[in-house]
Amino acid sequence: MEELHLEYYLVASAIMFFAGVYGFITRRNLLAILISIELILNSVDINFALFNRFLFPGQLEGFFFTLFAIGVSACETAVAIAIIINIYRNIRNIQVKNLEQLKD
Predict the structure, then answer these.
(1) Domain that holds residue 23
(2) For the chain, what is the domain count?
(3) How far apart are CA 69 and CA 89, in angstroms?
(4) pLDDT tens digits along 40-68
(5) Using CA atoms, how far apart are residues 97 and 87, in angstroms rounded to an integer?
(6) How far is it, in rounded angstroms, from Cα 39 to Cα 89?
(7) For residue 1, pLDDT beyond 80
């Protein structure tokens, strides 16, 4: 079975990264922004595992760092969703433009 080249993984990771950046910049819904951030973090995790696999094939540091980053990402998502739920309870909307109401 033929092994895929490094470039294929990098292109897929770059597409995920730039889709996440585009979503973060253009979306106005807090949940859509959170999903875009998660997309960016997942593309970074792919790069950690990828460079570990191709630069140091016998070692597992990149994979352990990827698992750690996924755990931190899950915790960040849980906290962000809790904050979004709290915002929704206060102003009944999760659009970014309506967050000015929280200053009152």
Answers:
(1) 6-103
(2) 1
(3) 30
(4) 999 999 998 888 888 888 888 888 888 99
(5) 13
(6) 26
(7) no
Tell me how long the chain is: 104
CB 49 within 8 A of CB 36: no
Considering the domain boundaries, does residue 23 fall inside one?
A: yes
Nearby residues of 88 by Cβ (< 8 Å), 6 or more positions away: 94
DSSP reduced 3-state for 95: strand
Give the residue from 58, 29, 60, 64 showing the smallest Cα distance to 45: 64
Q: With H, G, I as helix, E, B as strand and everything else as coil, classify residue 99.
A: helix
Residue 1 lies in a domain: no
- What pTM did the predictor assign? 0.84
Helix residue ranges per DSSP H, the chain: 6-26, 30-55, 61-91
